[in-house]
Structure prediction request, 323 residues.
Amino acid sequence: MVLILAADIGGTTCKLGVLNEDLDLLHHWEIPTNKEENGQHILKNVYDSFKKNASLKKYDFNDVKGIGIGVPGPIDFENGIVNGAVNLNWHGKKNIKEEMMQISQLPVVVDNDANVATLGEKFKGAGFNEPDVVCMTLGTGVGGGIITNHQLVHGHNGSGGELGHIKVDFKERFKCNCGNVGCLETVASATGVINLTYHYYEELKFSTMLKENILNKTVQAKHVFDAAKAGDEFATYIIKKVAKYIAYAISIISVTTNPKYIIIGGGVSKAGDFLIHHIDSQYQSMAFKPSLDGTKIVTAKLGNDAGMIGAAGLVKQYILEAK
Prediction:
């Protein structure tokens, strides 16, 4: 039996999984991410947990053909080097591929966490294994991944697919964590929803059920979506603004890679069809018309499993199928 080990390493927990060649999750669990001493124990902790699980679940570790890893940082994909991952307390360049190969004596493939989540959705989720898929994750920030002709787009230095840094707000009202202003992340993430809520309340003075939260500076993105669903005029105005920014970014992506599925994931996507409807209606009005034919905007399906499945998919693509 062919087994693949997958690790989706995050700032709080490492999501670990054992999968078969068809990318079915056989076992999955989490361990805390140990960031002490510049995160030097993380990879060893991951490997030790895999070994312990093999003993508990009684499978032969000799059946494992590779390890796929997703990490929150910019990746030199060919060499498996992350150029810093602040959430993991990794500073400067770290060769994850080489380190994990030395620890495990197994082939290793490494990619950015948003890329592996995109690959997971492509293989087993909302992408239905189509060759051309884009995933946009709307959380505290905005991440993403682009797949064209079944291959992830990395670019010459690993910056391909950084969708959150498409410039969409040309009024340049909010500074992004990347140092620029006007990025999609500043107006379409959970933080972006809050940015727009405070900004437009000051500008327009709408009557809204969010007034108390706004005045107390306690607004959360969920408050705005819930109010919009309840028919609040101001909250609906904000969500339409968010949807327009996302649709603009998608319209650029559509004439660049022409994906079959544009998958919206992350915490903000929990707004579901309500958000998708607003994005799609804006997208239809601004996109290059031929690119609309057959393209669908959909919600991600896999949740927290996407990263593990995508990391295992890297092993399948670049180790198993490369032989």
